[in-house]
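Give me the fold.
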Amino acid sequence: MVIWSPGGTLSQPLVSTRTCFESATKMATTNSRSCLQYLLHLAHDNLDFRLPEIKALLALRGKQFQPIENFKEKVRKTNSPFWCLGGLSEEDVRGIMARSVCAKSAFELWGHGHTHSELRTSLLNYPSENMSPFMEKHSTYRINVYTFNKTLEFADRIKKIDALDYLPFEGTVSLKSPQHVFCLLEDYGTDPNDIPDHPYYIYFGRWIGDGQRELIRSHSVKNRHFIGNTSMDAGLSFIMANHAKVKENDVVFDPFVGTGSLLVACSQFGAYVCGSDIDYNTIHGKGRSSRKNQKWRGPDENIRANLRQYGTEDMYLDVMVSDASKPVWREAALFDAIITDPPYGIRESTRRTGSHKDTTKPPDGFYVESHVPVSQAYHLSDIFTDLLNFSAHRLVMGGRLVYWLPVYRPDYSEEMVPLHPCLRLISNSEQTLSSHTSRRLISMEKIKEPEEQDSLALGADPSLSPYQGHNAFREKYFSGVNKRSGKEENKPEVNGE
């Protein structure tokens, strides 16, 4: 969040979290500097990814997610940008803001109410010992007014600030460089066609810090030195790194590295990064360019150059041309996190190298010319089976695997998510691609070392079989089946049929 003068406004509408603040009222009289309520203002996009990110960032600090009572992220009305958390210190909140790309800002909650009268009562009941350190005579401060889903005239904003004169501010107002910033937030709902005259809910608190939304702009693929047809969006790359709990000095691996977007994000958080890909031209930055008005890639277009662009080249280990279906690594726990976006067969083919093992033995008495194919189809079910097996053997204990799983929505069920005896499912978040397809961001954590029976169990695990049908994901993606079925569903009934 940008801190600016009272004339500022946010365009994103916010939904009230009344239950949160009604619970906070009960605690107000017994509150202390060591037991506070903090309010997170989250971006109102990528809704399904927000909760796993905040939980993962809390886990990095050894903290539990302690939300308001009756918090249900899947319920539409609680998909609010306002989340109230307890059991945290200000240092914890600043730590979250230093990493999160889903959160905009964080506040120490001082008061709340349905009306300004209720807000006044709530603020006057807030412990004075919590306020006084930020209201001292020699301090400087500023009060910002934010309105959600409604634009107020400048004069109206000034009136709202003046109405807070009951607060014991003793310092001096400084609009340019205040020591402390306070925020009055008014929520006018989410319907731009039905904006009420008065806010649904009002909040007041001390600003703690901003999230890392700026990373989405500064690392935009549009400005990336080396890109390809499937380069991952910067915002999603940082979300994946956070879901994987990537931290300083971790070693992160991407087995389908492409142009290295995920390596860029992980290196930004201080991790050493490496990867592999079966495509020689992509790894070496050769061949046709993906940029408009540029026919061929330049001599310095490669993954290392991308990290150099953002000042993290010293975190780059290396990448290699390798087939993800073939074991090339020694048997050891090598990586703190494995983060990847496997090919779906849409923009990039799903191929693996050929092998003598894959050739069919001719019947006796028949001669067939010996031929080993250079490459062959690599079914999605096989890709994810190999990926989970690889992760179970190469992740350190507690390390995370984060990957995208493409699905055909009419056929999807949670049972289709591949499982492994050594990996615990942490989160499963959806990004819609079209009316009939989406991809799920799957996060898994290693909970035990693999044993021989685990490999046998994986091959016979019925939880893997439902996903076999999605080997035809490419055909379903382009089929338009749902469009035809949609027309049939919307077809008017004739003669009661």
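The longest helix spans residues 380-394.
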